[in-house]
Amino acid sequence: MTIGLAHLLTLAAMLFGIGMYGALSRKNAVHVMMSLELMANAVNINLVALSRFLTPDALTGQFFSVFSMVVSAAEIGLGLALVLAIYRRRRTVELDAIDELRG
Amino acid sequence: MSETLPVAAFWILALASLGGAVAMMATRNVVHAAFWLLEVMLATAGIYLLLSAEFLALVQVLVYAGAVAVLTLFTVMLTLRRREDAVREFPVAWGSMAIASLFTGGILLVLARFRPALAQVPETIPGVEAFGEQMFTTWALPFELASIVLLAALVGAVWWTGGEDL
Known about the structure:
The structure holds two protein chains of two kinds. By secondary structure, chain A is mostly helical. Chain A has three helices and no strands.
């Protein structure tokens, strides 16, 4: 058997699903950020795989992937900075405890 | 003119990344979860190598396995008041699992329906040299924008976490 585009897309979809489960179910803010990174990672696998199979000469997917990595690095940096700021003020990072805007 | 991807290497890397992701969700210790995330990132770098994206594999190891893993562990350690706080029970969240399963199932259904039957990859692809050349010609403007994004994130992170008057 050969490994095709479908294999890589399936792998990325499953990683994305696992990350989504973590992002939805976890109560610890840092754990949620880690799950978000897992999802971003799955998206990057998709981009690179599509670039390799569909437009190998243009490298478009690889460039998209690089910029997606930049954005997700900025996101994790800012997200963890927010978590630290919340911790300094509230002494907790439990998402259940941060509910001022709850209606 | 065309070749296929190595089968054994793909299955090992796929198993490593999926197993790491499942272990990350199954472990009760948030520090262990951070290390499992690191393992998933390294397996992903291997997949990039498999797809002949050498530069991306390098960036993946440097940024995700290096910087992001250290940053995550750093925050975990800073936001835990007691060692025991790291370990806690995670009851299975059936609602979240249903949503995530529905989403993944939808994607897999679409994949099975359209069946992207591409298995052959071109033998010759541009290497790191062509990548760098295009990065600073075709993609020069996005590259500069990316540096502004990173600068803004840097300043924002320092501003939020530092300062006396929070």
